[in-house]
Amino acid sequence: MTEEIIIAGFGGQGVLSMGKMLAYSGIMQEQEVSWMPSYGPEMRGGTANVTVILSDQRINSPILNSFDTAIILNQQSMDKFEKTVKPGGILLYDTNGITKHPTRKDINIYVVEAAKESALMKSSKTFNMIVLGAYLKIRPIVEIENVIKGIKKSLPERHHHLIPMNVEGINRGLEIVQIINEVA
User: Fold this and answer.
1) Which of the listed residues 4, 33, 129, 155 has the most CB atoms within 10 Å of its CB?
2) How many CA atoms lie within 13 A of 31 on its CB side?
3) pTM score, two decimals?
4) Residue 140: CB partners within 8 Å, gap ≥ 6?
5) Domain of 134: which CATH number?
6) What is the count of structural domains for the chain?
7) 85-93 β-sheet, strand order
């Protein structure tokens, strides 16, 4: 099993953190892992993306042109990465700020209202964990126990008090993801 993932959105949405937690989760499961971030000079507010590869076999290259999964959190990223999802692959997105919804019929498309849900939870910091939970519902490539271990590993100890809130966000994402298009 090899899963090649791009997570893309604005800086400040937790794109890189989500990728890091997913990568650490893979390590906890003794998978081969690649984590390659990319962001503009603006950081917060600019565009950011991260490529994560999880595999049971050795990873040849962290540089990819197409992906099994694209997790999209803004319109610029939708415009850039929708076309890079492999046929039969997954596109998961949050509708907040999306004006042109995905149109491909050869990929599986899912939506998670993570921005809306994190506002209802009164915790914007859970946004990326809601998205991660939604992804893990669609594609359970790592076990939730390993995700929690990954959160502990990726968060500085001074932020460990936020772990229960992050777990709550993941659980919420597992519940609210919706199917838009599934290919046979």
Assistant:
1) 129
2) 24
3) 0.93
4) none
5) 3.40.920.10
6) 1
7) 32-39, 47-55, 2-10, 67-72, 85-93, 108-111, 178-181
